[in-house]
Amino acid sequence: MFEIIAKETVGPNLTKYEILAPWIAKARKCGQFVMVRADQESERIPLTIADVNRETGTITLIVQTVGKSTLRMTHLEKGQCFADVAGPLGMPSHIEKYGTVVVVGGGLGTAVIYPQAVALRELGNKIITIIGARTKELVILEDILGETSDKVIITTDDGSYGRKGLVTHALQELIDDPETSVDAVYCAGPVVMMKYVAEVTRASKIPTMVSLNPIMVDGTGMCGGCRVTVGGETKFACVDGPEFDGHIVDYDELIDRLTTYRNHEQRSLDHFKQHHKCKCDGSRQNVDD
To answer: Is the entire prediction scored with pTM above 0.90?
Structure first.
C-alpha cells in the first residue's frame, strides 16, 4: 500500500498527488513512469513520475480524470493509500548538452516535460518552455517550469491566457527567429500535437524527442498492448520508450490504436457512475458502496 501524503486539485479534472514510495523515489530517473492501481477493482494505468523528493521518499503524480479507474483514484484522500504503484519503469530520457532546448507540453504532457526541463537545465542547456492548453484553467505547472526555464510561452486555444493559438505556432516563431538557435525539442501531449511539432522541426532537422502514450496494460513488455511503429520497426513503449525520435514515429497508427477500446471504456465509466450514483461535478462519493 502506498500512502497519499498530499493531494491538490491543479485544474479541472486534474489532481496532483504526493505518494510515499521511497524505493521508487530513490531509483527513478528522468522520463520514467509507474503503473498505478487505485484499489483492487481498478485497472492499472501508466503515470509519469513528475517529480521526486528523495529526502521524504515521495513521488509526485498528476492524474487526469478521464475514465472509471482515474475517477476512482480521485476519491482517495490524504492519508489513504493506492493499492499498487509499480516502478520506476521505462527507459530514462536521453539528456545531453545541446545549447538551447525547447520543451513543449500540451495538457497533461506538461507533467512529462517538467523533469526533462530540470535535467536538461542541470547540464547547462538554455530552456525555453511552451505550454499549451485549451483554456486558462487547463494550464498546469507554469510556476515550477518558470523556475527552471529561461523563458515560458503560454498558448491557449481560446486566447483566455497567454497568446491565442497552438504550440506549433509559437515553436515555428522561435525557429524562424534569427536571434534564437533551437538545438533540440522535447515534446509531450496529445498525439496530434506531437505529430505536428515533429513536422515543424523536420524541415530544420532539429532533434525532436516525443513521449508516447499508447494503451498500456502491464508496463513490462509482456502484453504487447503498447506496441508502436518507430522507423518501420515495432517497439514497445513501456520498455523501449516511452520516448522516441519524433521524426520516425507512425502517429496515424498510434491514433488509430488509441481509439480501439474507446466505446468499452465509455460504457464502463457510465456503468460505474450509474451504479455508484457518482455525479460529474467532482463531489466525493464512496466507491465502496
So the answer is: no
